[in-house]
Amino acid sequence: MNAPTDLQKFLAAQEKKSLLRFLTCGSVDDGKSTLIGRLLYDTKLLFEDTLASLEKDSKKFGTDGDNIDFALLVDGLEAEREQGITIDVAYRFFATDKRKFIVADTPGHEQYTRNMATGASNSDLAVILIDARKGVLTQTRRHAYIASLLGIRHIVLAVNKIDLMDYSQEVFDAIVSDFHQFSARLNFASQVAIPISARFGVNVIEKSKVTPWYTGPALLSHLEVVDVDTALADTAFRLPVQWVNRPDLDFRGFSGTIAGGRIKPGAAVAVAKSGRTSKVTRIVTMDGDLEEAVAGDAVTLTLADEVDISRGDVLSDPGARPTVSDQFAAHLLWMADEELLPGRQYLLKLGTATVPAQVSALKHKIDVNTLDSHAAKTLALNEVGYANFSLAQPLAFDAYRDNRDTGGFILIDRFTNATVGAGMIDFSLMRATNVHWQALDVNKDARAALKGQRPVVLWFTGLSGSGKSTIANLVEKALAAEGKHTYLLDGDNVRHGLNRDLGFTDADRVENIRRVGEAARLFVDAGLIVLTAFISPFRSERRMARELVGEGEFLEVFVDTPIEICMRRDPKGLYEKAKAGKIKNFTGIDSPYEAPERADITLKTVESSPEDQAQGIVKYLRDKGYLG
Fold it and tell me: For residue 272, what is the domain's CATH number?
């Protein structure tokens, strides 16, 4: 057998080194990119062509005269180089004799907090930089809080640009004291403060003589030895199923990346949601079968039994199954310019499962400066809150503190597919296990048959003054004359009782429609033809109301009247008051109306009378078989 080559020895040695994932964060222009560039440069991990390019770019884009601008090693985007800021998460790899590192350089600007959260979600340690001239800022506190929220337990407080403060110990001590007063409530396992100058390499790679009063380690020395072992391999087994692998009739495996624990052939596993159990027969990979797989391994498991498993299911240790519930409490970091609206339906992606979900109650939001809780009805960009979530179906999950992969989720806007929030599950509200649908002998079909009709919701939507209530009232009168069983939910009427506690903010409008949708669903279950007359300005809530009932049980009726006509009619004088500033959040004036894109029925009210429009709807119902 041939002796191993130098390259093979080197690769073998690299495999044995531990890996530390860390991020740099803090306020803008605190020197994060410069610090990473200095680490890469001083650890001699740059190729000659990279160095040559860096020297060239430093002359063109640099901010340090004729010297090398180390930040340019990381600021790869053209926009970043021109502005001298980082607007994306940049990942870099480097290694020393003792350890391998993956570092995430995250943006400092407040509007890019979502990028910082992305970097933090995959990191074990955070290096929070503070400009010695500025001290602890709001963004410093925000990043420290988010790091804590996202499960980071080890912090390095790097007080940068200490050279610009004459290497003052007093300045350093004051900043450290200020930060520790804030961070005492964040439950970090370790906090190490280091005075540095990334520009000149002071206390970055090795201790510097210019800070003789500092007795702690250099930054790199600390990063090489800090113990951040999360021991995911020693937690309960979790495998979120990414896909069911069926290349032929003779093979059926369940593929995914192990999110916790370890597994061997012969081990028992359970499907978290159903509780069905089986045994692992093989652990299949591209490189052949394994005798054992651990957290982080991408594998395909085959089982001894035919078990109903699909994408989104979680395979787990039968003796330590995750919680299964359709409601839970969680921290939420809001990442969208458009505010969070409790009651609005979003898509919630947890592991490999994606389900419709909504914030059922926003308990409070957090002041990042004081960590105090404040009552809130909504969350704005970069705000953090604590909320109850309601899901369309139960999911399997763990608390985020126990497992990031099975306890962390994102919220997705149903129309734009943009990620609007990131959440960390705290605990289950256990609704799926202690509240069940009660089986009833008399069901919806039986109630509708007694009435000789098919239940349906006629959802009239349009601007104030468009004629919704008028036409809906005429339709109900016509149906009643034919002996049909109906109920009309009018926008003004429900605000005298069911929704009397709601105002007209966007958040209240969403809750208003959610409640009406639930009421309409109950009337449909009673076998009635339900008519609703609401502005219901948002497509998302109208879609939510549609999805509460069965296929063919919801007809969106768009009362399409130009706003000029509505303002001319103005039966209640609301437009005049809104234009005068006496009414806030009035649809069409200072609050938007999102017209239906594909309404089931569209009424052009300027083309015919309300009576004709009403008769047209009754004919539509008769033709479609709703009237028996």
Answer: 2.40.30.10
